Amino acid sequence: MAGCGQALTDSQAVLKDYFLENESLLVEETAVEAVDPFDKMDCNTDSNLMEEGPGKPVGLQIPEKASRTQEEEGTEEEEEEEENDLGDPAVLSAIHTAQRGLKSSSKLKASNMLGMSPVSLHFLCQTMDYFSPISFRSTLPSASSPARHFGLQLSSPDPSLFYTLPTSRPLRLSLPSHRTQLHPQHQRILQKQQQEQRCGPKHQSSRVGKLWSQKPDPYAGLMNQREKDWVIKVQMVQLQSENPQLDDYYYQEYYQRLERKQADEELLGRRNRLESPKLVTPYIQKAEDYESVVRIEGSLGQVAVSTCFSPRRAIDAVPHGSQEQDTAIYNQKLQVLYRIEKMFLQLLKLEENQKGKLAKSYFYELQSKQLEKIYQALKTGDEDNSEEAANGLLQVLSVRKGKVLVARLLLLLPRDQAVHLVLSITSHLPFLIRRDTADQALHMLFKPMGKCINLLAFGELLQGLQGLMVLQPGSQERPITVVLQNQFGISLLYSLLSHGEQLVSLNCSLKQHSSNDLATWTDMVVLIAWEISHMATASLAEPLIVPSNLLSLFCRYVDKQIVQQLEARMDYTPMATS
Amino acid sequence: MNYMPGTASLIEDIDKKHLVLLRDGRTLIGYLRSIDQFANLVLHQTVERIHVGKKYGDIPRGIFVVRGENVVLLGEIDLEKESDTPLQQVSIEEILEEQRVEQQTKQEAEKLKVQALKERGLSIPRADTLDEY
């Protein structure tokens, strides 16, 4: 045993050199103890599997155990030999004995000492052996058995172990070619197995699955729960964010939709609501930010500081005053863009607040204040002259982004302000249409404006329509001709007329509207009808929506001839009616 | 999924048999034993499977530690369905030979193509001179 023990200690030392820092002697002893089963079994193993001749079991301390293991070895050997293509009988037996609790405690102790699970210990031995079989040999000249048993712990674990039956060999391995670096033992075993299997019967593989489920995986659990939790912890850290709505928008949206759907389902009566698990990402407070480096707005990177060691000119990156006095067109355009940007940022913040927070009165007040701010900025309300104010709005609307801004803003504004905006747009429609030829983006205003139009009072409506009919100074034609030739314009017009018709027909008692208003209304309708009928059909734009009540409206006020022409024109519009 | 609902994680795949496709085109089959936050994999009882046409051959490789960035995809192998495949398993030598033959034919075809293009004054940049992405 002494010699064996010595050999084992040496191998243990080698093990340590490779992987461990643990230097307690206790380890050695327990490890030696733990490795004992290998020794015993190995010494009794079939000589075929060994390089050197079978040695006598060196130091059989515990005869009973040895005999027991010998028995087990005997029975197991056969099945294992057949079973293991790339063979690891020693390990397997070791495992089985360990499982039977022979030296389980010591083995565990050893592995715990070494800081790993018993399975890892096996692994370690295997890998160790694979990498340095020669070194083992050289350090263990004396005892052949330790070398043997470590040699037996062959590196290439058996891939077919878990998916073949004892007597089946779907894997037909010939002698490995020079490409595969196999351990000589390994090769020998392969050869042997091959020979055996050539005469062995083949089994169906359908039983494989069943066998797999019966056989416990001895290598399972290499990654223990602590390690798994650690990986998950790292992954969770990556998910930390101050603003999950922003950083993890898609998942949050998805989960909210899922919840809403489930809530609906529950409402419909499906009582057993399946709680879908939610990933609770850690929400962290924004850390205190501090500028560690001096930064000047507009400079590139760090500011060069002059010190006595590096007298360098500091970057002069201060912006040169305000450019409001500059009347160059370029600057004006920049101004408009700048205004739009500012308003857009405010709008976005507003929308986000609306989406996030519940409708509490406090927030509502805050929102309306913010909304007012944006509206004022849009109108450039600080100017007294209404022309100037309108000008500001029109400049904003001339830019595509401005149109988007107004479209989104219209949905949020209170009624009066929205109406005011709509009326200003309609009164300057030709101008806007002319400016829009490049972008063709007016249509995005249609939907929000349509919503506002339905809120218009009769008087306001008339105001809007009149704006269209006013003869512009300096031109012969009315704005309406331009309007009719533009898709947005004609759609808007139709919506206005439709709404007017609704208002008039709903309020059957004529006392609702003043007679003046009605007269104006009639005039408007007639004029518009006339204009439409006298416009070449080809130049009439296709409206986005053709309201259904228009034709009846025209029928009432206009004579038959014109109605016919109107019919012809309006029938050309194939789009669905509202 | 019970660890991190709504996310993809390899934790549930541990100790199961997987097929891993690497960026260099190799196919590895092994038991996934360990992972880390970069999806580096430890494969146990790994077998490198070479496919040529309808044939395949397995080369036993032992334990593999694969760096996460080299993995194209991986998927669990259903042990029961694993064996019903129309593919035919052959020995290692045979499959390597088949592979060599396939490579050769491919190279020859490529050479012809390049020659034809050269005659027309065109050229196709070779994959190995291109960036990987």
From TrEMBL, chain A:
One of its GO terms (biological process) is negative regulation of cytoplasmic mRNA processing body assembly. InterPro entries: Pat1-like. GO terms for cellular component: nucleus; P-body. GO terms for molecular function: RNA binding. Residues 46-88 are annotated as: Disordered. It comes from the Eukaryota. Residues 72-86 have a biased composition (Acidic residues). This is PAT1 homolog 2. It comes from Sarcophilus harrisii (Tasmanian devil).
TrEMBL record, chain B:
GO terms for cellular component: Lsm1-7-Pat1 complex; nucleus; P-body; ribonucleoprotein complex. It is found in: Cytoplasm; Cytoplasm, P-body. Pfam families: LSM. GO terms for molecular function: mRNA binding. Keywords: Cytoplasm, mRNA processing, mRNA splicing, Phosphoprotein, Ribonucleoprotein, RNA-binding. Plays a role in the degradation of histone mRNAs, the only eukaryotic mRNAs that are not polyadenylated. Probably also part of an LSm subunits-containing complex involved in the general process of mRNA degradation. Interacts with SLBP; interaction with SLBP occurs when histone mRNA is being rapidly degraded during the S phase. LSm subunits form a heteromer with a donut shape. This is U6 snRNA-associated Sm-like protein LSm1. The gene is LSM1.
